[in-house]
Amino acid sequence: LVLIKNSFSFLHDQALDSNLSNLIKRNNELESLMGKLIQTCQHVEVNASRQEGKLLEECDMLIEIIQQRKQIIGSKIKEGKVSRRLRKLAQQITNCKQCIERSTALISQADQTLKETDHARFLQTTFKLQFEKKNMKIYIREELCTASYDTITAHWTSDDEFTVVSYELQYAIFTGHANIASLCNSLESWMIVPNIKQNHYTVHGLQSGTKYIFVVKAINQAGSRTSEPGTLKTNSQPFKLDPKTAHKKLKVSHDNLTVERDETTSKKGHSQERFSSQSSYGVVGNVYIDSGRHYWEALIGGSTWYAVGIAYKSAPKHEWIGKNSASWVLCRCNNSWVVRHNSKELAIEPSPHLRRIGVLLDYDAGYVSFYDAVGSQHLHTFNVSFIQPVCPVFNVWNKCLTILTGLPIPDHLEAVEPHS
Ligand SMILES: *[C@@H]1O[C@H](CO)[C@@H](O)[C@H](O)[C@H]1NC(C)=O
Ligand SMILES: *[C@@H]1O[C@H](CO)[C@@H](O)[C@H](O)[C@H]1NC(C)=O
Ligand SMILES: *[C@@H]1O[C@H](CO)[C@@H](O)[C@H](O)[C@H]1NC(C)=O
Ligand SMILES: *[C@@H]1O[C@H](CO)[C@@H](O)[C@H](O)[C@H]1NC(C)=O
Ligand SMILES: *[C@@H]1O[C@H](CO)[C@@H](O)[C@H](O)[C@H]1NC(C)=O
To answer: B30.2/SPRY domain: from which residue to which, for each copy (predicted)?
Structure first.
């Protein structure tokens, strides 16, 4: 028994021994693996910092290249400008020389005529003098003109700037119905800015979203010359969303241009201004419209439940939009589109991919129209005799929409009769 026990104990020791050496072997393997890993880590770090260095170096090189290019382009532009100016000056000098030659000839002719007592010949000479100077032409440079919602800067050029003493700018509202000729004859509707010394002028205090007709008159010693009329239009008055009016379940972006359905419960306070209905999730634009023409667009950001339109400033904020007599809207409810006012709904059939809704409001003429701004398809017009100031209004029940404002009224909307 002892022998058996001893031999077992021996076997046992041997097993432990081999287990132990196994463990030591594994341990050594692990340690060397760890060493390798640490080394790799260091390599990676070194490589990363080397790459970073290289990247920075390349960035510096790029910046240097860009700066060199900038210098080259800058000097090229300067050269271009200078040579263009030189060419213009040379042209003007030639013109001037011709003028002087002509004047000298005319003066000596006049001198001679004065000496003679022939009255008829004197008159003829004077007429010739005026006639020659009248050959000058003047153009409104529409590509240089700029506009905001209440100003237009008009630029013009004339063939013969040398002899011009001053310009006179005339402008009037251009409705498109009156023809230009009859408008030009009805002097009382024109505004006149006399005595302009440079070849551009900024007119302030214009109506937003309105087309104007401009004419420039160049005046020199010999008389005056009028340009062809040019038409220019002001943009619509720009506006943003007023986050103070947004329903609790809506989130307005930092730039106040996008409104999104907000599922998180929030701490927005209650106020009179805020939309507060259980179901009408609205926000209004921060603009007060009581005259003029206005155009804006709503870009639909994946929303399938929304309403876009206008409401009286005083319209109750707790009611559904379009369900009272103080609001006019176009709505999408999942797969159906309607226009709604005073709870009366009318189905419309826009493209199912309607993505940009154009709203044209003419307060004075009394209508608000909705368009597919991409396909420029007319969707609906409400005739309204407005009796109170109105503001744009937007509702979203899912996803978001973004507003686009300060746009000029698109040409194709000017061309069509709003009621047809
Ligand atoms: C330890 O030794 C016993 C007997 O030789 C063997 O069965 C077992 O698998 C060993 N264990 C390890 C971890 O090597
Ligand atoms: C470090 O970069 C060299 C070449 O630049 C490459 O051969 C080596 O594999 C890289 N090492 C690691 C750990 O990325
Ligand atoms: C957004 O509207 C709020 C409240 O009227 C205003 O304080 C903020 O300046 C506006 N932000 C921008 C970018 O217009
Ligand atoms: C919305 O339209 C989709 C697709 O036609 C339909 O599956 C879904 O049931 C509609 N949802 C509601 C609330 O009517
Ligand atoms: C709007 O008024 C015009 C007449 O000025 C009329 O022809 C048109 O049918 C009206 N539109 C609607 C929708 O009532």
So the answer is: 219-412
Say if residue 229 is in the same domain as residue 253.
no
pLDDT top residue among 304 and 12: 304
Q: Which ligand is nearest to the CA of 26?
A: 1
**Between residues 406 and 4, the one the model is more confident about:** 406
Could you tell me the CATH number of the domain that includes residue 145?
2.60.40.10
Cα separation, 93 vs 165, whole angstroms: 17
- Residues with CB under 6 Å of ligand 3 are 240, 242-244, 255-256
Give mean pLDDT, residues 264-268.
61
Is the pLDDT at 131 greater than 50? The verdict is no
The reply to whether 385 and 283 lie within a common domain is yes
C-alpha 19 – ligand 1 centre gap (Å): 6
Is the domain of 109 the same as that of 128? yes
Tokens of 17: 């021994």
* Number of domains making up the chain: 2
414 CA to centre of ligand 5 in angstroms: 17
Please count the other Cβ atoms lying within 10 Å of the Cβ belonging to residue 186: 10
pLDDT tens digit string along 52-104?
Answer: 999 999 999 999 999 999 999 998 888 888 888 888 888 878 777 877 777 77
Q: For residue 93, give both structure tokens.
A: 């000098």
Nearest CA to ligand 2 atom 5: 47
Domain-located, residue 6: no
pLDDT at 420: 37
Q: Which domain holds residue 184?
A: 103-233
And the tokens for 32? 């060397």
Residues 386 and 310 in one domain: yes
Structural domain contains residue 275: yes
Q: How confident is the model at residue 31 (pLDDT cuts 50, 70, 90)?
A: very high
- For residue 266, tell me if it sits in a domain: yes
72: helix, coil or strand?
A: helix
Q: Are 365 and 312 members of one domain? A: yes
| 339 Cα–ligand 4 center, Å | 20
Looking at the fold, whether 248 and 314 belong to one and the same domain comes out as yes
Dihedrals phi, psi of 136, to nearest 5 degrees: -55, 140
End-to-end CA distance of the chain: 119
The pLDDT tens digits of the residues spanning 253-264 come to: 999 999 998 877
349-390 residue pLDDT tens? 998 889 999 999 999 999 999 999 988 899 999 999 999 999
- Give the H or E element holding residue 102: helix 2-115
Token pair 């009156």 in the structure block, residue = 178
